[in-house]
Amino acid sequence: MPAVDLRAARAALLARTPLVHCLTNTVVQAITANALLAAGAAPAMVDAPEEAGDFAAVASAVLVNVGTVHARTAEAMRLAARSAGAAGTPWVLDPVAVGGLVYRTELATELVGLRPTVVRGNASEVMALAGAGGGGRGVDSTDSTDDAAKAAAELAARTGGVVAVSGEVDLVTDGRRTVRVGGGSPLLTRTTGAGCALGALVGAYVAATGDPLTGAVAAHAHVAVAAERAARVASGPGTFAPAWLDALDAVDGAALTAADVR
């Protein structure tokens, strides 16, 4: 495993309070904003085409999530991605349900051409985006992270960035180095928005650390550790969601260092 200093990554996020510009789906805006705040970052939901490009240039990081995309937000995403690239701002592409629907698949493919810093999705989404089949059942994957490993490495090589594949064991690769993050809880898959919030946290950690691989690993470890803690006190999905937010706040560098990262 490549050296990844998770304690330093947590300290950097808390010290820098990165501002994450989220162009994300309407279902998860509140949980995404709350997850960023709980972890120590700052959210902004600026999705108008008239503002998205300008804001992306001054934000610490940008999240582009195509979950409930339409023509107006698609244009804002293009403008934000181009602006982030020109400004050197790290940006994360979350290709929600790509492979199953033509419009969003074409948009996500176009956005990949703008070289996202990190692509974060489930195995089916990553495989579809890489042109290796895939395409799950809506937002749910029908493939495993191991199924997507080769496609993820090839996609990372194409973008020059990092690809993170979420699953029972998460996989993070830059095309040369690969890190796996275990842990978490099945309740994450029964709570709306946890995966989308993870994309925003990836942006926050990448901005704080200046290292896409370290940042992506730290975000996945943070979410997994918080989920384990929340699951211990929750009685089901309804109590898990607020417990997870509390746990995101409580996770410190020592807890991340003890995470299942290999």
From TrEMBL:
Q: Where does ATP bind?
A: 120, 166
At the highest ranks, the source species' classification is: Bacteria, Bacillati, Actinomycetota, Actinomycetes, Geodermatophilales
Name of this protein: Hydroxyethylthiazole kinase
Q: Which GO terms describe its molecular function?
A: ATP binding; hydroxyethylthiazole kinase activity; magnesium ion binding
Q: Which coenzyme or cofactor does it need?
A: Mg(2+)
Q: What keywords appear on the UniProt entry? A: ATP-binding, Kinase, Magnesium, Metal-binding, Nucleotide-binding, Thiamine biosynthesis, Transferase
A Gene Ontology annotation in the biological process aspect, one of them, is: thiamine diphosphate biosynthetic process
Identify the Pfam families for this entry: HK
Catalytic activity, EC: 2.7.1.50
